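Notebook p. 47: complex prediction with protoporphyrin IX containing FE.
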Amino acid sequence: MTHTQLHPVWDSFIRGYHWLQAVTIGGLWYTGTEGLMDWHFSLAYFLLALISTRLIWGVFGSETAQFSRFVRSPVTVINYLTASLRGEKPSYSPGHNPAGAYMVVAFMLLLITQLTTGLFANDDIISEGPFAYLVSGETSSLLTEIHAINFDIILGAIGLHLTAIAVYSLRKENLITPMLTGRKRFNDEALPKVVNGIWGWVIFFAIGIIVYFTLAKDVVAYLF
Ligand code: HEM
Ligand code: HEM
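Predicted complex, structure tokens below:
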């Protein structure tokens, strides 16, 4: 006999990463469009450390965080989506559903592109990314343009993400509470291995120190 009970699904690092990322991107949007470059760079370095840790956590972290476990074949995704469109509630192992997994990968690629182009960008005034001096002025301007266009794509992806989550709630599947509490109700035969998120925070702290001393120190000193 199986029971449906609350079980751990998202460790504390995944949850903290998710909400810190959402707030930081809001801040990057505001500071980028307002030209508040010292804050923009500082927030970007914070996000750089956060996302780097998420990528490492995607290999060594909880099973629900591991890319190799949650990214399924496109066929699985199509079957999942067609069943959903028929109004069924296809079951999937605890963690990201097959379609959501591709959204995670898309977010990662978009954010890595955003961070990389930012490092080579310039604002035509006095601020330039720390690696802009390595490329010609033309290349830096081109990467700055990509930085602006890619952000619009990110906004589109966020819109899609929020729409998908709203559709799930209309269909009585609450995804938000588990992303806050870490726990979700599912069959106790399918328990994923959720490790202590503290290790994720330790990695984040170590990467944060490296990013601070190699890239962020000078610009953070200007903030206050
Ligand atoms: C800047 C805005 C946001 C970005 C870039 C973003 C990105 C992401 C990413 C990358 C994941 C995968 C988490 C992982 O495996 O590490 C995720 C999951 C999730 N996000 Fe967001 N998110 C944003 C805002 C929000 C907001 C405002 C909400 C709530 C209304 C939300 C609700 C969720 C939920 C519920 C999941 C888990 C989905 C599942 O069960 O598979 N997100 N998000
Ligand atoms: C995921 C992280 C990032 C996000 C979401 C982001 C977002 C933005 C946005 C929305 C703008 C305004 C674009 C416009 O003018 O329409 C901008 C501009 C800019 N960003 Fe970022 N950015 C990120 C990372 C970085 C990084 C890592 C750097 C450099 C260290 C950087 C440097 C710049 C510069 C120099 C500009 C000014 C460009 C201009 O004046 O046209 N950004 N960013």
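Notes: The chain has a mean pLDDT of 95. Helices lie at 12-34, 37-60, 67-70, 74-85, 98-119, 137-170, 176-181, 198-221.
Next step: compare against the earlier run before touching the bench.
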